[in-house]
Write a structure and sequence with these properties.
single chain, binds zinc ion, Peptidase_M1_pepN_Ig-like, PepN_Ig-like_sf, EC 3.4.11.2, alanyl aminopeptidase activity, alpha+beta, zinc ion binding, eight-stranded mixed beta sheet
Length: about 850
Amino acid sequence: NVTRREDYREPDWRVPEIALDFDLDPAATRVRTTLWVERNGTHDRPLRLDGDGLTALNVKVDGAEATGWHMDGPNLVVPLAGSAHTIETEVEIAPERNTQLQGLYASSGMLCTQCEAEGFRRITFFPDRPDVLSRYKVKLTADKTRFPVLLANGDPIAQGDLEGGRHWAEWHDPFLKPSYLFALVAGDLVANRGSFTTMSGRDVQLGIWVRAPDLAKTDHALAALKLSMAWDEKVYGREYDLDVFNIVAVDDFNFGAMENKGLNVFNSRYILADPDTATDYDYDAIAAVVAHEYFHNWSGNRVTCRDWFQLSLKEGFTVFRDQSFSADQGSAAVKRIEDVRGLRASQFPEDSGPLAHPVRPDEYIEISNFYTATIYNKGAEVIRMMATILGPDKFRAATDLYFDRFDGTAATCEDFVQCMEQAGGMDLTQFRRWYSQAGTPRVSATLAQEGGRARLSLRQLVPPTPGQPVKEPMVLPLKLKLFGGFTGRPMCDEQLILLKEDAQELVFENLSETPVLSINRGFSAPIVIETNRTAKDLAFLSAHDDDPFARYEAMQQLMLDTLVTSVTNGSADHQPVIDAVRNTLTDSALDRAFVAEAVLLPSDSFIGDQMALVEPEAIFRAREALRQDLGTALEGEWRAAYEGSLANRFEYSPSAKGARRLKTVSLGYIAASGAADADELAFEQFSRADNMTDRQGGLTTLVNGASPLREEALEEFYKRYQGNGLVLDKWFQAQALSAREDTAEMVERLSAHRDFTLSNPNRARSLIGAFSVNQRAFHHVSGRGYRFVADQLIALDKLNPQTAAKLIPPLGRWKRFDAGRAAKMRSELERIVASPGLSKDMFEQASKSLD
Ligand code: ZN
C-alpha cells in the first residue's frame, strides 16, 4: 500500500463534466452523480472510480441500469465498451457520523466539506486524483429552516423553494478543476459582504460567512481578502475570475483552511477576530491564511498538481507568495525573522528526524501525512532561492510564463523549474537537488586574515536522511558582506555567491582593517551555518550589521553559543549576551517589534536541536539562568521598555503591535529577575488589558510562576470566555506550555476537564499538541508525558486519524535523548503501532518513527 512517484500514469478515463445532486440531511444525505467520461488513449481497461466507505445503491451506464459493475475493495469498477459514456451513481452518506472531518461532515449545526487530498471519494465514486479535471454543476436541496444558506463552488445559477419546508440552489463552476477542490456548505449563516473590482473591471461579490453571533468578528478577514486580491494583481499580474468569492468559517477543521474554487472553507480561528478575543499573532495569521488561500486561486487552482508528489508545486509557491504579501503589509525584516523561527522550529527537526523527506517525495503510504513543514515551508524557501538567483524581473517573467503555459492544466515541479530556467536564462540542473534530496545542508564558513587579504573557506555537507545515505552538493545562494571590525563600516557591497561545490574559496584583497563576516544575510539559503566568528564578532554584528535579519541572527548565535556552553560545562559567561541585549534594547532607532524578536532567547527545543544529546532539564536550567541574569542585570532597561510600551487604547498597526510584543517580552524578563512586584505587574496587565495580546501576555507570565495570582487569573480568564471555543483553546494552551515543573501532571488533569474534547481538532491541539512541544514537560524523566500523549493519540486516532497522525513527530525524536527516555519513547510508539484498528495515517508516522 505504498504509492510511488515513479509509478505515475495518465488516467485511463477523463471526466470532462460532472453533475452532482445532493439531497442534504445530517443523518442521511443522498448523492446522485452523473459523470461524462471519455477513454484516454486506446486501452481496454474498465472505468475505476475511487470510493471510501461508499455503497453503490444504483449504477447506470448511458441511462440504463448497469449490471456489469463490481466492487474492488472500496472502489467501483465499471467495464465500458465505447470511448465515451454517461455514468450515474447514487450513494447515501451520514455527515453527522463523520468524525474524520474529511468528505462531507457536520460542524456546529452546519454541513461542510473537506476534500483535499482524498476526501471526495467519501462523498461519491470518482477518479479522485488531481489530474482529472472536470466542469462541475452542483444542485443542493435541504431543509430551509436548518440550512437557509446553500453554497458551492463557482457562480450561483438558480434557486427555489420546495414543498415540505425544503429549498434548493444550483451552482456552476465554469473552470476545470480536480475533485479535491470541490466544496459545498449548508447552514444557518450570515455574511459580511464586500466587493472588489478587478484590474480588468470585473465586479466580484465577496462574502465571509459565519454564524450570526460571529458576524462582528469578520471585518479583519474581509479587509485582508481585499488587500490580497489587489496585491496579486500588482505583484503577479493575477486577477480573480468568478463573479463571487465566498469564505465560510467552521469550528471543526483538521488544519488551517482550504482553497476550494470560489468557496474557501476556513478553520474559524483563521477568520474570527476582535481585540477582546484575538491576539496580534491571530490577526497576522488570519491575514496570512486568507491571502494564502486566495493566492491558491492561481497557484493551485488555475494551475493545479499532476499528482500528490507535486504538492509543493502549489504549497511551497503559495507559502512564498503569502510570506511576501505579509512582508509588504508591515516590517519585512520582522516577518522574515518570524518565518525563519518557524522553519527552525518545525522544518529543521523534521529534516533531521525519521520522517525526513524531500520537497518532492518519492513515496507515501498516506498523502495526508505529507502536508508538512518540508512541503510547505522548505518548499517556500526553494522558491525564494530561485527568486533570489533570478532577481525580481526575471522571476516575474518566469511566473508569468508558468501561469500562461500551464493555465487549466495539472503541472509538475519540473514544469515550474523549466519556466524559471527559460525566463531566467539559466541552467538549474544542479539546483533541482533541492527537490530530490532531503536534509538540511550544513555549511562551515571560515574567514582567515593574512595582512590586507582575507580568505573565506566554505564547505557544505548534506547529512544522510532515511533512504538517502549519500548526498550530492547543492546550490546554495549565500548573500554575504564584510564589515570593518574597527570602524564598523561595510568593506564591500553585499554579494550573492552560489556555493555549488563541496568546498569553495573566496579571497578579499586590499583590506584596511580586520573584517567581520556577515553571511547568509536575509537567510538567503535554508541551511545551518557554522562560522569561526567569536562572541565579540557576533556582538559587533548584532549592533552594526545593516541587514536586520543578520543582526537578529548574530544575537541568536551569541545566545545559542552561550547556552550550549552553559549546558555542556554547567556554566558560561553571560556578560557578552547581557551587553548585546542592552545595546539592542536601548537603541531607540530600532523598530520595537524587531527589538522584541532580537532579545528573545532561543527556545528550549531549538537549543536542544544544537546538541547531539538533548538534556531537557539542563537546557531548561541554563536558559532560566541566562534569563534571570538578563532580567536582573537589565531590570531598569526592561522597566523602561515596559513603560515605554504602554499604550492608551488598542490599535492594530505595526507600531502598536511592536509595542505590545516588547511589553510582554519585557514583562517576562522582569518576572525572571525575581522582582517582588512582578506578579502584580503581570496581573495588572492581565486584568486591565483592552486587548487579548496583553491579556494573554499577562496570563502566560503568571502561568509560568507560582504566585496565588496565577490561579486567580486562570479562573477569571476561564469565566470571562466560557463558551468561546477559540479563546478557551488559549486557556488550555497557556497551561500546556507552562515552564512549571508540574506541567505534565496539570495537563493530565486538564484532559479530564469538562471543556476538553478530542473531537474538536483545535482543542485537541491546544492541549496535546502544545504539551508535546513543551520540551521540559513532555520529556519529564518519568516518561509520564510520553504515556499521556500516546494514550490521547490512540483515542484520537479512532475519531480523526489525520489530526492524530500529525501529533506523532515529538515522540519520534527518541534518538536524540538518553537511553532511558529513548526506551520509553520507543515503547509508546510500539504501543501505538500495536493498537487494534490503527489507521494507515498513524501506522505510517509511528512505524517510520521507530526505524
Ligand atoms: Zn496551501
